[in-house]
Amino acid sequence: MDNESEKHGHSCCCGHRHEEQLHGCGGGHSAGGMHSCCSGGGKQYVPTSVKLWLSGLSLAAGFVLSKTWAGFSPLADPSWIAVALCGLPIFAAARNALEEGRIGTPTLVSLAMIATIALQFAVECGAESGGGHGGHGYIFAAGEIAFLMACGEALEERTVGRAKRGVRRLAELAPKTAFVKNPDGSLQEKPISELKAGDIVAVKPHSAIPADGTIVAGRTSVDQSNFTGESMPADKSEGDRVFAATTNLSGAIEVRVEKTGGDSEAEKLARLVEEAAGTRAPISRLANIWAGRLVVAALLASVAVFFIVKFGFGLPAMTALVRSATALVVFCPCAFVLATPTAIAATIGRFARLGVIVKSGAAIETLAKTDTLVFDKTGTLTKGEIKVAGLAAADGDARALARLAASAELLSEHPIAAAVAEFAKAEKIEALPAENFVSSPGRGISCETALGKIEVCKRGAFAGEIESSKTLSDFEKQHGGETLVAVALDGNLRGLIALGDTLRCEAKTAVDELRALSIDAEMLTGDNEAAAKAVADAVGIAKFSANAMPADKFNEVERLAKSGKTVCMVGDGVNDAPALAAANVSVAMGKIGNDMAVENADITLLSDGIAEIPRIIKFSRKTMAVIKTNMGISLTVSALAITASAFGLLDPVSGALLHNLSSIFVVSNSGRLLGQGRREPRQAAACTAAELRSFL
Description:
- The chain has 696 residues and is an alpha+beta fold.
- The protein has four domains: 2-169 and 273-336 and 632-674, no CATH class; 177-263, Distorted Sandwich (Calcium-transporting ATPase, cytoplasmic transduction domain A), CATH 2.70.150.10; 348-382 and 504-619, Rossmann fold (3-Layer(aba) Sandwich), CATH 3.40.50.1000; 384-502, Calcium-transporting ATPase, cytoplasmic domain N, CATH 3.40.1110.10.
């Protein structure tokens, strides 16, 4: 029985198969056919809302008639409508389970419904009612069981559906048409489906961007909050990538189309979230195994109740049968099975709205258990962007030093050159005209200017001069964890420039919050010892390893995992790929568009900020607490209810109500994890070609 439960997944009371795909019961069901599983693999002919309304009204009518009409016949009971609409799918699911050699919860519920219906006809044939309903109401009880289970299923699917729809709206936010720029400069409105790579589209302010691409003209700010969870707009200019379903805020731009339709980042993320919502966490598989055992326990308990009531209490057989049927109803493990998938789906949906993409339910469970978190340095604790950290001029004139460096770096494409050029621009320092530019691999660069020959090279070329200067040697000690370059004019050292990676402003706070969660933080980096120590000291990480190659990172993470630690590795998703794979759970700093990060990590932070890491760990722990609470409540209610059934305190009607209320509570409790959704960006209004021209 255990093996079968693990292999096939467990069928819920409603006929729902909780397998790897939460709603994927096979039979060619579409993604939107959420209730088709209850039809036992067939098509759902009656919409859920219609089914519930008709069933509810029929039950109300049946109840009134049974209480007011003494000659009321069970054959004319309107409750049969509820039995047919809501019960037949359960019977079909039970049949499918039996054909596969399984005794699932649909089997248990079907037996309970058959038993209550049989009790009604037994009463009509002259048997004593057994105290159930004075000879009436057993058809109502069967219909109530089926109806309330259908209500629980609808609530479950609403919870899971909300989680999926939140991210699916990302793809739907893209406009239906776009204005394509023709070779003659005119604009032609085309459906999005007709866009192709290479097209130039015009996007006016306050309009949705129609496709993934690169800005070729214009500057603007883009609202990417629906992707990344960032509250601040992102500044964009020529050469920057933009994404479909984000909103152009401030300036007219032209975008070269790169990806459209199903290839867009919005569609990709929507698919990832939908797939993740359908995967099972290890605790879910464990729940399914125990649920299978509970089905057997319920059958045995029902038989036991009959013998205890009949022979132990000495009550009539009809009474024993009523209480036995009630035991079948109340002991169904529906709520127990629903405890995990609904909570996991709700959490995945909540994370997606915050710009955190989770690829599986297992990742949430493992993240909740994490006790060791390993950071990469470059691109994770730091931004991976080289910046000028400081200057020291031998003669005290820092601006003159910066001017010399900027003049030499003017024609270079090296990242250091870009950093120096950016610094000079920010300080409004104008570079000198330069010629005879020479790049010497392993040393640096040089050029000729009106002032003379300028060199920007490794500090080792002027080690003696640096050591003999107190100003420069003190500066070197102060910036020991950063890269130092020397600047010389006509062979004479003029000063030093320190360049370093920019520390993320939220890094120290994130490490402190992890410590408060009793999580040990470590750092692995391929950078040198001094640079690694500088970052580790700045963020408060005591244990770190420098000069670590990818294989070294892998070995260290593997060692930690094998030592009994639950390890979460955080990296940029490329150089750290082996270590990410070795960890129990992995998080990638994956800005949108970073395919490698999305593909290789269990969790991807689209906002590219590590402040979210302590938050998602804390919420993952909350999710697991909710799941355990749900399971505990389910088992407690079942134990109390079956005891009450044996003593006649519950009948099939009240038992069905109590059982399904517990299932509805479990689903509702899980639904709280979804929280209040972020306000969705409004669909940008369509604009005319004439309006666009006025902006362009």
